[in-house]
């Protein structure tokens, strides 16, 4: 009898255990101290993202011309622990604010650190912070940035 109770208890314990939710692509970051989170995305893929090797976008609304967007272009074949900075060849980092002002790394001081890069079909994750500029007098500060996205090496898509 004790044996059957033990097996029943184990069965209940395994049935009630919580499973980890599947990860979803998203980006979160602060713009001048205001938190933003975007769940609409295009996978990291090889395309013509200003000649970066891998490019992915995240946006607030899934529209043809998004009201707010973050675009990340990673040169070469990234690896976990790699750091990209403003001025690095083919590193693209663009933020489009609600007024459609485009802020870019040119003249800014952005840094992105890859925390995971699993290759085709896997995940790319990283952290970022720094300044982006729209003009000599217009800039934004992005802080506490984190992204995770699927990697797809042959075409864009969701």
Structure write-up:
Strands 1, 2, 3, 4, 5, 6, 7, 8, 9 and 10 form a ten-stranded antiparallel sheet that branches. This protein is mostly beta strands and 158 residues long. The model is unreliable at 10-21 (pLDDT under 50). It is globular and about 40 Å long. Helix content is 9%, strand content 48%. It has one helix and ten strands.
Please describe the topology of this protein.
Layout: H1 2-16, E1 26-31, E2 34-38, E3 40-45, E4 54-59, E5 69-74, E6 83-85, E7 92-96, E8 102-117, E9 123-133, E10 139-150
Antiparallel strand pairs: 1-2, 1-10, 3-4, 4-5, 5-7, 6-8, 7-8, 8-9, 9-10
What's the helical proportion of residues? under 10%
- Number of helical segments? 1
General form:
globular
Radius of gyration: 20 Å
Low-confidence stretches: 10-21
By helix and strand content, what is the structural category?
A: mainly beta
What letter string, H or E per element, gives the SSE order? HEEEEEEEEEE
Q: Please state the average pLDDT score.
A: 82
First and last CA, distance: 53 Å
Summarize the structure.
The chain is mainly beta.
Provide tags for this entry.
158 residues; mainly beta; 10 strands
């Amino acid at each position: 009898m004790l044996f059957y109770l033990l097996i029943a208890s184990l069965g209940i314990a395994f049935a009630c255990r919580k499973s980890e939710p599947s990860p979803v692509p998203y980006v979160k970051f602060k713009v001048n101290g205001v938190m933003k989170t975007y769940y609409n995305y295009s996978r990291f893929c090889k395309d013509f993202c200003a000649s970066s090797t891998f490019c992915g976008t995240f946006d607030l609304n899934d529209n043809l011309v998004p009201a707010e967007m973050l675009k990340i272009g990673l040169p070469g074949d990234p690896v976990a622990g790699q750091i990209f900075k403003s001025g690095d060849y083919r590193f693209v980092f663009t933020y489009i604010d609600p007024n459609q002002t485009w802020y870019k790394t040119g003249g800014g001081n952005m840094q992105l650190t890859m925390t995971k890069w699993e290759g085709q079909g896997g995940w790319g994750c990283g952290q970022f912070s720094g300044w982006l500029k729209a003009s000599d007098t217009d800039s934004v500060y992005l802080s506490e940035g984190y992204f995770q996205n699927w990697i797809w090496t042959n075409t864009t898509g969701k």
